[in-house]
Write a structure and sequence with these properties.
- By secondary structure, the chain is mainly alpha-helical.
- The chain is built from 14 helices and three strands.
- It has a three-stranded antiparallel β-sheet.
- Helix 7 packs across helix 10 and helix 10 crosses helix 11.
- The longest helix is centred in the C-terminal third of the chain and has 23 residues.
- The chain starts with 5 loop residues before the first helix and ends in an 8-residue tail after the last helix.
Length: 273
Amino acid sequence: MRRLPKRLFKRTELQLAPGIDASRRDELGLFQRHAGIKFKNPELLNLALCHRSFANERGDGTGNNERLEFLGDSVLGLAVAEYLYESLPDRPEGDLAKIKSFVVSEASLSEIARGLRVDNFILIGKGEEYSGGRAKKAILADAFEAIIGAFFLDSGFREARRFVLEFLVPEITKVLENRHEKDYKTLLQEFAQKNYRTYPRYVLSRKTGPDHDRVFWMQVEVGGRSFGPGKGPNKKQAEQAAAAIAYEELASAVGRQKPRRERGRSHGTPQKN
């Protein structure tokens, strides 16, 4: 199959980017200095920071960052997987997969994006602005992945990997030292969507204790199975506890349950016997 030349591919993306006036060019320069990166084509960065709500409201053929997000997700995954594979030679596939799932989760990436002040620089539509779009984890995490994809196109994998690891290695260290914040509901939702094409369903099984000291007990259903119950002083914390039970069991089992032929087709590290 004939390859699309890289220069032509980048030119196609550049044609979709919104225009950059002097004020926006200064903003992009400020972001690059803060993030420690330098784009040869700042138009790619501008496109990475263009949410679909902004493009849709303009209605002039301006593109959005979703294609770059798709690309950046793969670059991010490869950079993190390579680092884990090389730096943790004694860890089995299941451990590597679990560590990776924590550090590339929406919760983790959105916090990195916030630290980079992506919320200040992203272009979003008025409707999304009014609904608090700049603070939404999904929008911030997606924009960070799009920036990675744009930087990969602009400067190649080596520079993109350097950028990724600068921010992800500290997150990996947190996981290894068990200091990371585990948003199990998000992790379980991402796992269920990827593996079962469905969403977890939470069910309140019972409430115990007096009114001033209630304990909520929640179960979660994923892929035809029920997990829990998890308990907490409110429904939200009980759901997190139930999600933790489900995620830990499912994530630990998924590598062991794959038949050898299926493993060979997956993107994960082959299981060692």
